[in-house]
Amino acid sequence: MGIGLIVTYFCFELNIEYNLDLTFLSIAIIFPLVFTIRSSFRRREKALEHLSEFRSVLKTLQYFFMSSDKLTIEEKAEIENILFEVNTKSLKHLENEFYDVHELDQTLHKVIEFTISRPETIPRNLRDKIFRFMKDLHESIENAYAIHAHRTPISLKAYCELFIYAFPLIYVPTIIFSIHISHSQFIIYGLVLLTQFILISLYNIQNQLEYPFDDVGLDDIKLGSFKMDR
To answer: Which class for 148: exposed (0-12), middle (13-18), buried (19 or more C-beta within 10 A)?
Structure first.
């Protein structure tokens, strides 16, 4: 916003003004900015869907194992701990900007190993159901991590940021020419500051939605809601 004040001051001092169609600004700045906000919002909504599926699949697997009459109490406790470990590690990784899912993959494989190693106590029909739900579990986790890793294209964000900084150079001389109020410069200063404040606010909103798992922004996803023992 300081750039806007400086540009406005020099435009008045050097008498710089010209007539430019402000539709250009809407095409160059507003449209890409709104597009990135909508894209980030859709990613957030998709992340909520995948996390909801993630928790529901884990709970279903827990019910399958707990309802088995052939598993001992110790075996039920073992698989339940594994499922809780999958849940905890998945959410923990999503909170971090940089992460390695190799350890999580190994934990997920424990569920398969537990199921395969007990053909006598886990009948084939139950194994088939477990494998089917494990597919859904893997899919929900991979989708959530894809959203976490692949965000709005950096080039588009850089383009929006560049034009926000360049905005006063185009807007200020045009608004001075349009309003013709040289004796009341405070109106021009107010319009420039208000418009730039709106653009910066929109950019910051998009930037907060860009990282929906870090629990920093007001609209970030509350990962604690997707714990198995919430």
So the answer is: buried
